[in-house]
Amino acid sequence: MSDTPECPQCGQPNTYPDGALTICADCGFEWTADDPQAVSDSETARIWRDANGNVLNDGDSVTLIKNLKLKGGAGVLKVGTRFKNIRLVDGDHDVDAGTYMLKSEYLKKQ
Predict the structure, then answer these.
(1) d(Cα 25, Cα 82) in Å, to the nearest integer?
(2) Distance of alpha carbon 69 from alpha carbon 89, whole angstroms
(3) 29-67 as b/e, with b when 16 or more CB fall inside 10 Å?
(4) For residue 96, which phi and psi values (nearest 5 degrees)?
(5) Rounded CA separation 29/37 (Å)
(6) In the prediction, which pLDDT does 69 show?
(7) How far is Cα 44 from Cα 102, in angstroms, rounded to an integer?
(8) N or C, where is the chain less crowded by C-beta within 10 Å?
(9) pTM assigned to the model
(10) How large is the C-alpha radius of gyration of the chain?
(11) pLDDT for 67-100, tens place per residue?
């Protein structure tokens, strides 16, 4: 049995120590033993916006505003394709829409 505590944000037991921090592998929340309510730096520093400038949040529904060709010749994602319950991540493609990693600049919040 693991000696790391459950995540104070999502309550999942899948956590691991990283130096002075404890990190939740499920939601990415980071905290110290002294301050379990601390918000991770990535959550406070980054604000994701859609093509119209609306702030995006985890769990939002979005619509594609441009046809996007899929790598590997697998086809095209068409304008108007809707994605529900998105997850925001750091990186070049900053929206995790299940099977697809998308750029927020090609999305419109519903």
Answers:
(1) 27
(2) 21
(3) bbbeeeeeeeebeeeeeeebebbeebebeeebebbbbee
(4) -95, 110
(5) 10
(6) 92
(7) 21
(8) N
(9) 0.58
(10) 17
(11) 999 888 779 999 999 999 999 998 889 999 998 9
The closest alpha carbon to 46, from 61, 23, 28, 73, belongs to 28
User: Coil, strand or helix: which one is 42?
Assistant: helix
Contact 107, 64 (CB under 8 A): yes
From the list 36, 31, 8, 4, the residue with the least C-alpha distance to 20 is 31
Instruction: Read off the pLDDT of residues 41-68 as tens digits, 9 standing for 90 and up.
Output: 444 557 888 999 898 999 999 999 999 9
pLDDT band at 2 (very low <50, low <70, confident <90, very high): low
Contact in structure between 56 and 110 (CB atoms under 8 Å): no
* Distance separating alpha carbons of residues 71 and 56, to the nearest angstrom: 25
User: CA-to-CA distance for 67 and 89, rounded, in angstroms?
Assistant: 22
